[in-house]
Amino acid sequence: AAVFDQLTNSLEAAWSKLRKEDVLTRENIKEPMQDVRRALLEADVSLPVVRRFVKSVSEKAVGTGVIRGVRPDQQLIKVVNDELVSLMGGEMVGLEFSKTKGTPTVILMAGLQGVGKTTACGKLALYCKKKSKSCMMVATDVYRPAAIDQLVTLGKQVDVPVFEAGNQIRPAEIAKRGLAEAKKKGVEVVIVDTAGRLQVDRGMMDELKQIKQVVNATEVLLVVDAMTGQEAAKLVASFNLEVGITGAILTKLDGDSRGGAALSVKEVSGKPIKFVGEGEGMNALEPFYPNRMASRILG
Ligand code: GDP
């Protein structure tokens, strides 16, 4: 099943309850709005977010009055669509590029182990290449030798050079040397892969802060796994508090997730989702468009 299937079906059931009505009222939207509430909770959107969403939609829906030629169920769908778009941040927020000539854009990639961070580095490198930006990746995961090899392999796959300095040097120092190398070669975008951990810990946060400072990162993107639902949104919030991030990449949206993360991240963390990953291949990365996502949800 696709990620939003269940949500889409539950919402359709909600609209169908309004087919016989002439106008949206406080009374007749109660039941469909309870269905919306349940559907969002089942999609693993957090309770406070669901509450605010339902309240806001209900108020706006009742205020719409009669619109000639538009059925009440369609009117409610329109309100829900607009609120979904706004919940997800409204506009698409693209990558920020360096504004200083001769200074490369540095994208620092953070995330827990297994979420798809290294894969996302490769995908992003290919994305930048397609935008005609010269690119380099830097391997700073000194704890797992396999992580360096993995990045080198991905680099070959997308034809982007990888800077690595083994695992005997501190990550921040590797990042610094990688950036110097990139400047020397006139590379425009430097993507720094970092070490993940199984859980959030002090060491990881401190290391990220150090690297961020040393390379003066243009973007700090937290990679989160859509399968973890509202937890993903909480992670974005806590990394933002600790390290200061510029956005999130939501991976594995092609899997069995219920979509709650896509709906929660912006509201819970204040930071936008900038990209979504929908597959293991290097091409499976798309900018996150709230309006397209809302259309997918509403079917
Ligand atoms: P890291 O530990 O965060 O660097 O995670 P990896 O990049 O090694 O990815 C962990 C696993 O998730 C790998 O098997 C990837 O192929 C897979 N993966 C990464 N992104 C996606 C995605 O968007 N969809 C799917 N289905 N798998 C993904």
TrEMBL record:
Domain of life: Eukaryota
Subcellular location: Cytoplasm
SRP54-type proteins GTP-binding domain boundaries: 272-285
Family: Belongs to the GTP-binding SRP family. SRP54 subfamily.
Protein name (record): signal-recognition-particle GTPase
